[in-house]
Amino acid sequence: MRPEAVVFDLGKVLVHFDWSIAARRMSSRCDLSPEQLLRVFDYSPLVVDYEMGRVTDEQFYAEAAKLTRFDGDFNEFADLFGNIFSEMPAMIALQAELRQRSVPTFIFSNTNGLAVRAIRAGFPFFAHFDGYVLSYEHGAMKPHAPLYEVVERMTGHHGAELLYIDDRLENVETGRARGWQVILQEQPEKTIAAVRATGLLD
User: Fold this and answer.
1) What is each CA distance from 182 to 42, 168, 191, 193, in whole angstroms?
2) Residues spanned by the domain of 46
């Protein structure tokens, strides 16, 4: 069936991200090397707690600063930690085309407050979605089912009415198990072709 709404993951679907950017930039303000900083930031237990909403932005900064011996203030840390993103133009153009065709679009992401702050400030496309399901606001992360239930409630759609795009197989498979139509993003061109095949862009 033709989907009624499209749900986009954020990282590696609409924006590239690279933790090593933050590690390189922050290392001059820490006692740790970029490689050691990566172990702190690349989905460490601290970052998972942060993306689950178990700690606030300020608590995350305080704990990360203690672990890394970072000597800057919160705002400097937020800038260094959050500015690791770059747009994926073809995917942003896809979402814009869907909007022009009055197809509701949503963001569904494991993320954190500082990342969203940076994306909201730096990328105008982020403002143009019908809703946002962000892990840190709901105390759950993909691929666990409770966050998918939030998507269904927010969109008002279930099963094959939803088309879901994500770059991680485990996340896609949870959507598929709920009857969603899914696309595993490998290359933007393949994703766009798969969306066209649903009839949404006819």
Assistant:
1) 26, 11, 10, 13
2) 19-82
Tell me if 147 is assigned to some domain.
Answer: yes
Take residue 11 and report the two structure tokens written for it.
């990282």
Would you state the structure tokens that stand for residue 140, as one six-digit string?
A: 């759950």
- Asked whether 85 and 118 are in contact (CB, 8 A), the reply is yes
* pLDDT tens digits, one per residue of 39-69: 888 778 999 999 999 999 999 999 999 989 9
Answer whether 200's CB lies under 8 Å from 2's CB.
yes
Total domain count for the chain?
2
Long-range contacts of the stretch 76-81 (C-beta < 8 A, 24+): 76/29, 77/26, 78/114, 78/117, 78/118, 79/118, 80/22, 80/25, 80/26, 80/29, 81/22, 81/26, 81/41, 81/114
pLDDT (0 to 100) of residue 31: 84
For residue 202, tell me if it sits in a domain: no
